[in-house]
Specification:
With about 260 residues, the chain is of the alpha/beta class. It has one domain: Rossmann fold (3-Layer(aba) Sandwich), CATH 3.40.50. It is built from 8 helices and 7 strands. It has helices at about 20-30, 45-55, 70-85, 110-135, 150, 160-180, 205-210, 220-230; strands at about 10-15, 35-40, 60-65, 90-95, 140-145, 185-190, 245. It has a 7-stranded parallel sheet, with helices on both faces. Helix 2 (about 45-55) links the parallel strand 2 and strand 3 (about 60-65). Helix 1 (about 20-30) packs across helix 8, helix 3 packs parallel to helix 4 and helix 4 (about 110-135) runs parallel beside helix 6 (about 160-180). The longest helix has 29 residues, at about 110-135. This is 3-oxoacyl-[acyl-carrier protein] reductase. Pfam families: adh_short_C2. GO terms for molecular function: oxidoreductase activity. One of its GO terms (biological process) is bile acid metabolic process.
Length: about 260
Amino acid sequence: MMLNIDLTGKIALVTGATGQLGRVMTRTLAQCGAKVAIHYMSNAAKARELLQEIEEAGGQAMIVQGDITKKEQIESMKEQIREQLGDPDIVVANAVVQYGWTSVLEQAPEDYVSQFESCVMQNVLLAKAFIPAMIEKGRGRMIGINTECAMQNFPNQSAYTAGKRGMDGLYRVLAKEVGAHQITVNQVAPGWTISEKDRGADDLNDASYVNQVPLKRRGEDQDIANAVAFLASDLAGFITGAYIPVNGGNVMPAI
């Protein structure tokens, strides 16, 4: 039997859809047949470009704007998506606040707050907004974009790592709480990934990084999107509570 990722009839929301990884996830879910809500915070031009691209390919999509750390804005997004597409079957939490990395002693306290809000509270608010409709349907997918940094704990990663490790704990608990409704809750953890902004550079496989990666190369943005599409599909219907590194083996969860 040929396996096929078919999301026809499914509705997906991707937060941070205009970002380097988010845009490829959005395209891929649409190519698999899902109707997609394209979320953005500030890059309206890229959101419109994605919408046009999906519609020209015969897909259905819409754009929603909002601050994913604010309850009222997520609630507004929910109502807009429900009105135009319906209640999402798939929620991909990809958005994260960007900041400058430095040591614990030098990192501004507000950077820890921003990471908690965008890594933990975003997912709390998304769950509260969208999981009740999934429970009514008796199915659903929550997919969070984590990071290999959550296992590395390298210098200067503290705020990002703290936020993502908090997210990991939330996802594991949520997976146990909603599993009886056939809702799966999983995380994809990219490594240092090649995306659109990198292509064309002279050296994409920096030796200091790839020498430690078993596959001896960096992954592509499409690799991350493929994992998301798989977890969104019926093929992954019996996988939940997972933290799945997509990084060539650079980090490996222990048992």
